[in-house]
Amino acid sequence: MLLSDSMMCNKRILLWLAAPLLACLAGCTGSSHLAYVSLPESNAVAGFRINNASGKFTAIVGSPYPAGLSPAAVLVSPSNQFVYAANRTDNTISLFKIDSSIGSLTEVPPRTSSGITPAAMVMDSGGKFIFVVNQGSGSISVYSINSGSGALTQVGSPVAVSPNPVALVVTPSAKFLYVVDSDLNLVFAYTISSSGALQAVAGPPFATDAGPSAIAVDPNEKFVYVANSAADTVSIFSINSGSGALTLVSGTSFTTGTTPVSLTVSPSGHYLYIADEGSSDITAYSIDSGTGIPTVITGSPFTTNKTPVFIVSDPNGKFLYVLSQSGNSIVALSVTSSSGLLTVSSQSASTSVSAASMFVTK
Q1: Is the pLDDT of residue 16 over 70?
Q2: At a CB cut-off of 8 Å and minimum separation 6, what does 272 contact?
Q3: Is residue 12 part of a domain?
Q4: Cβ within 8 Å of residue 134, ≥6 positions away
Q5: What would the mean pLDDT of 40-57 be, rounded to a whole number?
Q6: Domain span at residue 80?
Q7: Does any domain span residue 346?
């Protein structure tokens, strides 16, 4: 059946009117972020688009996407082309290609072998290398990233580190890597060569309080922060820019809520936020940019959803996103840029099962 001239004209008008909306949905990076969340209990990765202005979550078509067994850490390449998930139970890393139009994921086989129980994973800011701590085998695996395909190639052999490494962070310059061991209460420090190879920083590892479980570095590469879940404290270290050695700020640690398990630094480097699983709240500090000494932000601790297990900053510094273990949800908290004050927003997303980690794109 042929369409009449008027019907054809109406169709063209509708397409013309819809074009801006379709273009924005396809990749309006100025108005939204992509976010990917690991779901260990369902062996999957969920995807969302988050509105920059409101913090509203919209599930991406087809989400969640099957991964390996019990995915923990999740990363996105700086190009926003690839997602990586570390699968703790089958000791592999999944590679997904991101659909540039809608943000959906397609896994690219085969999965890359890791050490035993890959617990945490970070990428350098240039997207050249991925570093993985293998909790079960007590080692660090390094992989180079093919910029075209996203494929991983192991750099040398895994580096033995300690009995129970649980977290790691790479500095923005990609000069240094820091690894936390929760059994020994230590931070191990490494320099990173241009090939991705690791060399231990001279001297003994750096002591924390009991039960270090998470680590972060500020965007200006001046300080390292470690959440000590057994001691209910945060240790703050200054970084020697030449050697990578750490020095404890003020000679002591600082009090948090009960069982701090995750922490994040604001993109400005001015604020530190710590998720306290035991007390179901967020401890917040402003950080002196010269000394690293923290000052409690007015209103801290901030009550949040039940049993927060992971916290991450919005790249624009407008929101914090908190994963709830018992609530099976992600909650957005608004950040007052001038003070660091947190306000629970009305925006949240269901994850159907407990989520382990989250990555938000720029």
Answers
A1: no
A2: 216, 225, 234, 263, 264, 265, 266, 284, 285, 286, 287, 294
A3: no
A4: 91, 114, 115, 116, 117, 118, 119, 140, 141, 158, 165
A5: 95
A6: 33-360
A7: yes
